[in-house]
Structures are given as C-alpha cells and as structure tokens.
Amino acid sequence: MKRIAFTFIFAMCILPAWAQTDAFPTGARAWAVGNATSTLADVWAVGNNPAGIASVEKVGIGLSYHASPLMISNFNTFALVYAQALPAKRGVLGVQVSRFGDKVYSETKLGLAYAYSFQKLHIAVKTNFVQIAQQTLGSQARFTFEFGAQVPLNKYLKLGAHIYNFTQSSFVDGVGKAYSIPTSLRLGLAYQPISSLSFFGEIEKTLALPASPRLGVEYEIHKNLTLRTGVQAHGQTASNTQTFAQFAGLGLKFKQVRLAYALASQNGLGVGHHIGVSWQK
Q: Which of 113, 171, 268, 281 could covalently link to 58 via disulfide, CB atoms 3.0 to 4.6 Å apart?
C-alpha cells in the first residue's frame, strides 16, 4: 500500500515531464542536445520527428534506456526503434516500441511511421497505439497521430517542424473525468557552419503550458568521437512555472555502430541517465 501511495504522489509531481503518452524524446543523442530534435535525421527520428528517417538509405535499428530522475527504477524507460527503406525509393517505414513504468503504473507505446522525400523536402506521418495501465484502475488505450517535416533552407540551415497528437486524444481518470494526452507543436533550426559543428535551436508549445525553448551543440572532435551539450526550459504541469534542465553527452562511432550517452540535470528532479546504441546501414 505504501508503494502504491508513493507511486501516485510521484506520478502527480514528476510524470508530466517523464511520461510516454506525450512526445517523449528518444535516444541519448536527443537528450544530450537539450531535446532539440526536430531537425535531427537518424534512426532515432522515429521517436522524435519521423521526417528524419527519410534519410535512412537502407536499414537502421536502435535500443535506448532512459533512467528517471532520482534514479527510481520503477519509472525507467526502454525504447526500440527500427527504420527500413522501401524499394525503388518509395519512402521509409519506421517502427517504435517503448515502455515506461512498472506493474503499479505503466505506459506502453507502439508507433508506425512513414516518411517520404519530395526532392529536398522530407515529410512523415505516424500513428501511435498508447496504453496506460494502473494496478487499481485497469488499463486504457488510445491512438495518437503525428506529422513531421524537414527541409534545408541553404547549405548551412535546416528547418524542422513536428506536431504531436493533433487529434487531441484523451484518457479518463478514476472518477470519470477526461484528461488530454499532451498536444504539442515544435519548430526548430539547425545551423552547421562546418561539417564537424552543429547548433540546434527549437521551441515547443504544448497546450496549457508555457513555451519550451531548447538549445543544443554537437561537436565532432574526432571521426569516432562527438561531444554534445544542451539546455532546455519548460513549464511544469503542477505549478505552471518555468524550470531549467542542463544536458551533456558524447557519441562514439565504430563503423556502422553508434553508442551514445547523455546526462540530464533538472531543477527539482535530480539527475537522469540516457544510453543508446544503434546500427544503421
């Protein structure tokens, strides 16, 4: 009973910033650059901005582990992403499977994405089957939908946009009151003055919350080693006040295999760790 009570209190205070029902950033690279992910193009884009998987030429797969703040194992997240290019350049299919929580409270997401390139413009649509399960209240499932786009403005700048849950799907709480799955819109720019250095800027607006600006930097100091850092400001659901998070991480590359680690420090929540490994051909 104490565990259930603790879980409920923690969920009310912490989960709005750490849940899977919203557009949870996927992969350690995303967290290392402050979650400014709308312009990133790799296999992890399946879970961030699916338009980014249009750059996958053949196939890619990734597995990530996200440790919650305060190192509470009950609320860790595991995610699997997969992208496969279709024959004759007919687009790229992406699949995402992620799970958050434990047997007391959990959230599971199954996503299917399709991305296509119109010359330089990459666009994508995605649908997610989202299920929440509570030990005392049973489970509920809903569908959410996403749309993403990426386009280079010139040889240095790229624009990215992503909208999540534009149908405003919602769940029902224990007393029959509907509560919405977050609907969010993200708009970002990537600036790459040289091939080894990239800057990412993004702003996210979630309904009923303040805008969340994000900044990230990625610097390849060696062909096999990349350093990353970022900062993010966002509003908490409970108090509707701005809080800040700082991020740092690195990436290692071994031929077609990429390893990534990120450390996230957020005011009031503590430290979270993120690890990801991917293979892309």
A: 281
- Residues 122/152, Cβ–Cβ less than 8 Å: no
Strand locations in the chain (E)? 59-67, 77-85, 92-101, 105-118, 121-134, 138-152, 157-164, 170-172, 178-180, 184-194, 197-206, 212-222, 225-235, 242-254, 257-266, 270-280
Euclidean distance between the first and the last CA atom of the chain, given in angstroms as a whole number: 49
Parallel/antiparallel/unpaired status of strands 157-164 and 77-85: unpaired
Token pair 């990625």 is found at 218
CATH code for the part of the protein at 2-280:
2.40.160.60
For the chain, domain boundaries: 2-280
* Contact (Cβ atoms closer than 8 angstroms) between residue 187 and residue 37: no
Q: Full-prediction pTM beyond 0.90?
A: no
Separation CA 268–CA 211 (nearest Å): 19
Separation CA 23–CA 36 (nearest Å)? 12
